[in-house]
Amino acid sequence: MAGPKLHITGAACTGATTLGRHLAEALGVPLLDTDDFYWRPTDPPFTDKRPAAARIALMQEAMGEDGWIISGSIDGWGDPLLVGADLIVFLTAPTAMRLARLKARERRRFGERIAPGGDMEGVHANFLVWASQYDDTGFPGRSRLRHETWLAEQTVPVLRLDARQPPDRLAAEVLARLAEMGYGAGGEPKENAT
Fold it and tell me: In the chain, where are the structural domains located?
């Protein structure tokens, strides 16, 4: 039976991909991280965007029909991916926490490459500035205001979660909501669900 179709989103480093991994394992569905489709593979990474139509086509091919989880942000370009979605999970966390997570993650991923003099120093510095502006209502990029506007336009139910909680607790909350929506413990639709 088909599993649920979820989109997990929020500001950078709210833990959408981490939560997505927990849920994908629990539900037995594929996880699609938008960064893997949004950016062409380059070195240094995250410097060459794919056109939106190409991103969407690649993601639709990878999604299949038997349930999926999309982690990351698709607002502004990926609405066709949500056709048939069951739930949007919107994660929030304080800016200071997100930036600390981001710095730690980037150090793990890239080490000395993001240090002063490293080949990714500029990319990293720009990413930090970009991520720090999420709560700025005048910021034209991915922002809380843009996310809230986009969420208000969706017909898919939205579950808002505080990403200060550990991933296993967040996953339990999502699984509980799916159970309320008629999905069983493994994510499959219950036989009598409508």
Answer: 5-94+142-180
